[in-house]
Amino acid sequence: MKTTISKLNEHVGQTVKIGAWLNNKRSSGKIQFLQLRDGTGFVQGVAVKKEVSEETWETAKGLTQESSVYVTGVVREDDRSQTGVELTVTDVELIHQAVDYPITPKEHGTEFLMDNRHLWLRSKRQHAVMRVRNEIIRATYEFFNDNGFVKIDPPILTGSSAEGTTDLFHTKYFDEDAYLSQSGQLYMEAAAMAFGRVFSFGPTFRAEKSKTRRHLIEFWMIEPEMAFVEHEESLEIQENYVSYIVQSVLNNCKTELQTLDRDVSKLEKIQAPFPRISYDEAIDLLKEKGFDDIEWGEDFGAPHETAIAESFDKPVFITNYPKDIKAFYMKPHPERDEVVLCADLIAPEGYGEIIGGSQRIDDLELMKQRYEEHNLTDEAYKWYLELRQYGSVPHSGFGLGLERTVAWLSGVEHVRETIPFPRLLNRLYP
């Protein structure tokens, strides 16, 4: 019976066949322990010399790291294994013998591993991180589909930007200027006016020359937009969504979190509602923590976000930022024109902002005023202005950065490990 490692526990006592790669191997003379992986998981295969043919023994003995094989054996329960089973090998069929595999069990430098990212992905740790990423994506679709959202795909090539062109990648679109999208938000607002509640999931690009552990040049965003939804309701949807994906990872990635040595007790606390503090309160909190130089009207950097997060054991919303440091489309606070109805969601443990969101301006005249203040050309943004002209309604939206969220839930330090092939300031290979 042919199966996969992830399903071996369904076949205890049965003889099965799997296709696998040799992750590692050790021998005690008359027993060979084969560490096997097949993409769905890892399992130990045990070949006992006196229980297999001489040909099978010699084939197993000659296997090198990352050689590909078909392995036949009997599934046995094993409480010491993460998967709860191991494979008593009866036959090994060599598919391809790998030679001089560059990534060995010894320590390697980060740049070496990044140069070999196409191979590093095979390691148990990277496999676990990508499984967590996959679960977040799966749970995202489930959450929004179950809550009446429609998936809409915004364009990646755009003629304008959501927040200015300074940090965008420019290209030529035949005879026109075009940019790689830094956000699908404006298009998602148009979609929300057609479908009510929508979400997108796709790549975004920022030409920021940043080298921090939180930044990538290319990353993936989940961006919901919601008609007839005001700021407070949007915050509730955000905290329910984040709680949902955290619980999904806890429930469905136990083995992966164990592989990553993740302290799950910290994640188990992540359930809505989340605390909320205003920007004003955040300034006061920072001054109490010794950030004497921070002034009202300044944006927060990584040290500020980390210091604020240390006061909470859940993600915390920082609300009502000054309008001068936020995007042109954010709606002013009804009682304070100098601040806007927005919030950043800051993850615990120093992982920084994972969500930015706001209620959008729905008044045509106010949006025209913002266009003038930000020198937005009428042609490039004409369609966006028309959303306020034909049946405007209160609406809100937010964007969650996938890689930062993966880093937080996995407990890894740098976002370069949270995307299969990271694009960094100094890296376009492989």
Automatic annotation (TrEMBL):
Superkingdom, natural source: Bacteria
Main location (coarse class): cytoplasm
TM regions (residue ranges): none
Keywords for the protein's UniProt record, in alphabetical order: Aminoacyl-tRNA synthetase, ATP-binding, Cytoplasm, Ligase, Nucleotide-binding, Protein biosynthesis
Signal peptide: none
Subunit composition and interactions: Homodimer.
Name of the molecule in the record: Asparagine--tRNA ligase
Organism: Exobacillus caeni
Gene: asnS
